[in-house]
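1st attempt posting a full record on here, be nice pls
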Amino acid sequence: MVKRARFEDYRDRYPNYEFELSEEGILLMRCHTGGGSLVWDWKSHEDMADAFADVAGDREIKVLIHTGTGANYNADWGRMPDGELPKEPVYDAMPGVRGLHKLDEKAWYNHNLMWNVLNVGVPMISVVNGPCNIHSEVPLMGDIVLASEDAYFQDVSHFPRGQVPGDGQHVIWPFLVGHNRGRYLLLTGRKLPAREAMDWGAVAEVHPKEAVLDRAWELARELAKRPHLTLRHTRQLFTQELKRRFLDELGHGLGRETYAQQEFFPFGGGMEPLDRPWDEKPWT
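the predicted structure (as tokens):
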């Protein structure tokens, strides 16, 4: 999915992803919805895959800073700023195999998202500016992960609501914190505070909320002093082992998640808030 891209081509392409490029060649990628915290819906999910493809294809940048906006790194899945929920199809109610094809398309986008993040060709500094409870694997694939004091990590969109956690978090958490801790987090949906995440090795530094992005810029400017090819090949060096893990397990996990979704989506097609019981049936 990665092809040659230039900042001018993608800077205004995505409504949920804002880009700024500094004179030193540092690219700031800020996730948002309407200037507030990112709301995960299918559009922002699919656009993130494409946005990272553009970043990965930009050979002019020297460092990437990836962060969220507002109080949270991201917000509840499908929860619009006005509190309304998008209307999603009940896939198993679609005629023929259309629903199965739609689920497969979602898995395809997720596969692209993971690989496009890993294919970013320069050092990536992730700034988790607040709670991160969906797709935490994205910032955790950064080379340096910073977090605000009020941040925490949690996977509420999978096992706690009745889905297989197979779209990337099953790879990154055991890779970073060990198999036992990783599967414990995914099975319980526990909130992992930023400082504990640092103790576990998933986060490099924790700072006050108002200071964490400034610290990222400080680090980025220091990194950007190095030769361009040194930066690019160091990123490739550091992602090689993680790419092996994703190559071995991402398709496997997505396959199991997609298969099991055939049971979930007759109940989950409306994408209600994620703290509901998985088998609750509010749809008629």
